[in-house]
Design a protein that fits this description.
Blueprint lengths: L1 H25 L1 H5 L4 H6 L11 E3 L2 E4 L6 E4 L8 H28 L1 E2 L2 H7 L11 E3 L5 E3 L5 E4 L3 H4 L2 H17 L1 H14 L4 H25 L4 H9 L10 E3 L6 H9 L5 H24 L10 E2 L1 H4 L8 H5 L4 E9 L5 E6 L7 H11 L4 E2 L1 E3 L2 E3 L1 E9 L16
Pfam families: Peptidase_M56, TonB_C
Membrane topology: Single-pass membrane protein
Organism: Rhodanobacter glycinis
């Protein structure tokens, strides 16, 4: 996960830095496409959870004053076990919350009354009447297998005829743009990144950019409605943002949306240039990430266990005296000849300095089978967990007698 998080963080930081300049230069629509950058970086096949050139050997057990030097199960001492479990619990909790909120919205939705639908029929345009549902949280779009437009029961009283037309035009534009699906993907990404503060900082800004892009599209189609559109927003009641829902107006968005409406919007040519330029920027970022990531070998580096047992780590006497235990995770850069070129202890190693020194000293004499690329040996990495324990080895199971 460290490698993936690095690129997710980089992608979010770049979007947050570029979104406003891109909006001023090219418009809200092209600027919204920048939000594709974080998932593009995340889904690159050459960016796995751990660097592709790193292989983890079984854990090596070191006991005091003995020749014991054995391999334990890698999963038993994996430094990633508890963080991954904590991440999984948090993700499941976020997904459960999202599912419960979505199910409650569906349960509280009702079909639009026939008399209300009759009044709105002239303002629907190409909007399918079956997409219209009643819900107190409306006007809003609810993502679903077939996205719904939610309207409040007092929709006819709250908005006049022109305002109703503009609200329905806005919500219909959300459906045509596929914003309901993008909102779902954003909510799922936030659930996966629940521990990442930048993800929660970015989510409301993605929602704002989505609304600005939708407003811009509506006003490009109906420039004569600019002033009326602004008045409709001013007369609307803001709602709190909620999972699974795209409200007509969220509380913090009014100022930004009115500012975009009042300023002159880029023309079609400038917007098209913006799409091309921003696509090129994102492609360049992806190619740069690919170029700076070492190529994965066809075969990973592996330890020569038979040879390495001749150079087992020695349990330092002072560590035995002070009752010091712990696991040292060594990161070994393996040369093309199989010898260690560089040895470092990972930051997660929970061991005393003397134990780290003992493990590193022994590792300097070890041998590995280097990774290969195209059948040729290449420099590669190996992770070697070394566990220093003061507890004796468990007794060997008794051998069954021939007569049993």
């Amino acid at each position: 996960m460290p490698g993936v998080l690095t690129y997710v963080t980089l992608g979010l930081a770049l979007v947050l830095a570029w979104r406003k300049p891109a909006r001023r230069m090219f418009g809200a629509g092209p600027a919204f496409t920048l939000w594709l950058l974080p998932p593009l970086l995340t889904m690159l096949p050459w960016l796995p959870t751990l660097p592709a050139t790193w292989a983890t050997t079984p854990t090596l057990l070191v006991l005091p004053a003995t020749a014991a030097f054995g391999a334990l199960s890698m999963s038993a001492a994996s430094p990633l076990r508890w963080p991954l479990l904590l991440w999984l619990i948090g993700t499941l909790a976020c997904l459960l919350r999202l599912t419960m909120h979505y199910e409650r919205l569906l349960r509280q939705s009702h079909q639009l009354p026939a008399d209300m639908l009759c009044v709105l029929q002239a303002d629907l345009g190409d909007l399918d009447p079956r997409r219209l549902w009643l819900h107190p949280a409306g006007p809003a779009v609810l993502w679903a297998p077939q996205s719904r437009v939610l309207l409040p029961a007092d929709f006819l009283d709250r908005f006049d005829a022109d305002e109703r037309r503009l609200v329905l035009q806005h919500e219909s534009m959300h459906l045509r743009r596929g914003d309901a699906l993008w909102s779902l993907l954003a909510e799922l990404a936030a659930a996966l990144l629940w521990f990442h503060p930048l993800a929660w900082f970015a989510l409301p800004r993605l929602r704002l950019d989505q609304e600005l892009a939708c407003d811009e599209r509506v006003l490009h189609q109906s420039p004569q409605d600019t002033a009326r559109y602004a008045r409709t927003l001013l007369h609307s009641t803001g709602q709190n943002t909620a999972p699974a829902l795209i409200p007509w107006l969220a509380e913090p968005q009014l100022k930004e949306r009115l500012s975009m409406i009042q300023h002159r919007r880029p023309g079609i040519l400038r917007r098209q240039i913006g799409f091309v330029c921003l696509t090129a920027i994102m492609a360049g970022s992806v190619f740069f990430a690919q170029a700076t990531t070492p190529p994965a070998p066809d075969q990973q580096a592996t330890a020569d266990v038979g040879y390495n047992t001749q150079f087992q780590p020695r349990y330092p006497a002072d560590a035995v005296k002070n009752r010091q235990e712990g696991t040292v995770v060594l990161s070994v850069l393996v040369g093309t000849d199989g010898t260690p070129r560089k040895i470092e202890a990972e930051r997660g190693s929970n061991a005393a300095p003397s134990l780290i020194a003992a493990a590193s000293e022994a590792a300097a004499q070890w041998r590995f089978s280097p990774g290969t690329k195209g059948g040729k040996p290449v420099e590669s990495h190996a992770r070697v967990p070394v566990k220093f324990s003061l507890d004796p080895l468990p007794p060997a199971p008794p051998h069954a007698s021939p007569n049993s």
